[in-house]
Specification:
The chain has helices spanning 2-23, 98-103, 108-126, 129-134, 136-151, 170-212, 214-229, 242-259; strands at residues 24-27, 31-37, 40-41, 49-52, 58-64, 68-78, 84-95, 156-167. With 330 residues, it is an alpha+beta fold.
Amino acid sequence: MVQELVIAIVAAASAGALYTAAAAKIVKQYERGVVLRLGRLRDDVRGPGFTMVLPGVERLRKVNMQIVTMPVPAQDGITRDNVTVRVDAVIYFKVVDAASAVIQVEDYRFAVSQMAQTSLRSIIGKSDLDDLLSNREKLNQGLELMIDSPAVGWGVQIDRVEIKDVSLPETMKRSMARQAEADRERRARVINADAELQASKKLAEAAKEMSAQPAALQLRLLQTVVAVAAEKNSTLVLPFPVELLRFLERAQQPVQQQMTPSPQAVQPPQPPRHAQAPRPAQPQRPAQAQRPASAQPRPPRPPAVAPPPVPAPPTAVPARPSPSKPLAKH
């Protein structure tokens, strides 16, 4: 009798232990427990720690309340300016209402993932390529609003959405590279032209100052020669400006005016007299017109050489007249 009683007590204790083990549940700090009793939601959500449920009557669903980082698969799309791109993103969300996350949606993770992909494709179609490349902050905010609107009813809060990468075709990359290169070349030419304009203004002011003192141009030339000679080159290229020639010409004009004789003093040379046939002297030429002081004096003509004398024809001796014949005429 006693033996049977001991066996019954041990069996009851074992059943109690099994029932307690089946009913005991542990909810972690970052989790919340949703209890369904006979398929009906209990209002109380179990917090972290030790809790008990009725085995076979109640069912406990644990919901993770941590922030979930979910990558959004890359989506192919065509932008508003007809450019084919491939965009991927990442989404950060967390569950704020455990009961809604269990009751309102079958799998809130899968639902958020599909909503993120659909919203990403919609954002690609509504945006330009320049917005995807440079104005991502605005697109991230729009994408977050599109995903957060249905997720609120699921007890899910979207914290942040970021576009990670935008993949472009190789042809588009080369076109963009050429565009950037052309833009940089344009800016370089504008800067160079602006520098040339400023330099020309300064050179014009310097030329205006040098025109008042012609010797300054020669000094500047000597400075250029010294600067070129400092390179220790075997060949020295010496620029010779036209203004320096004009300066030397103006400096040489007073000397030429002093050395030029007056027109009255210049007499043409007399041709030599021939011994056998003297020729009358040529009349004196009138004085030449006054030349301008800047003109060079004409060199004197070489003395004219008299041509050789022409011998006189022999004189015919008349024949004596004959009384019967008339005189012959020669």
